[in-house]
Amino acid sequence: MARRITFCAAVLFMLCTGAFFCAGAEPAVESSFERGLHAYRSGDWTSAVFMLRKAVSLKESETPEALYLLIMSEMYSGDYKNAANDCKTYLAQYSDTPYASYVQYQQGRCAYYLADYNGAVLLLSDFCHQNDGHEMYGAALYWMAEAFFAGYNYDAALPLYQRVVSDFAEDDKVPAAQYRIETIRQRGREEKLIYLLRKTSEEFLSARELYEKQLQEYKAKGLVTLQRQLKETEEKNAALLLELDAKEKKNDALQKQVDELKEQKAPAGQAAKAKSRGGI
To answer: Looking at CB atoms within 10 Å, which of 50, 105, 119, 235 has the fewest?
Structure first.
């Protein structure tokens, strides 16, 4: 952190002394840069971007220092698209300058803020591989973790946050990293709870569906059984009715035979009675 402040102070000191200007620079050019520098110091990022853009557009003041300050002004103002373009220009023209690694770091941050999370991871990963021991190393790890976090890849983000906390305890990103670690752990607990709730709910719904299915089957079986019993009863009743009708017909036939026999016996009986009276 102290080295980071020292580096920024050195940049501002060199710019204030005008060491970056070419000999014989026009006063108007120097004025544009000085106004931009004054706006930068005051935190007036809009004015700083405007004046520094004007300054670097002129050959006399087209220096790596001025372009670096323009990039930083754009980053502070949230103009990440132009900052990304200027980072590419810087690295193409001034890759061997002391500020190149810092611009490379800012290029990764630009990708993050432009929601190019995969690009941010690649750029910041390259920065870390190429600048081991750099004062921005811990911050680069943090922004890589942020890119993974924004892309919902919490498993990749967590170890990076943990490394920031354990290996770069003095970095100003540590509190934010600790917060993210707790957030991820809390999310893990919530996801586990949601999983258990979902599983319990699914088991309950499955049991309920099985119960309702069995109930419907029971009702269906009961209805079928009742219908079968009713049909059997109706068939038995029909058979009994047929049997009763047959018996009634049989009784009628027997009754008819009895009546016929009675009619046949009646004359013979009368003759016997007459004969009997005549014999007395």
So the answer is: 235
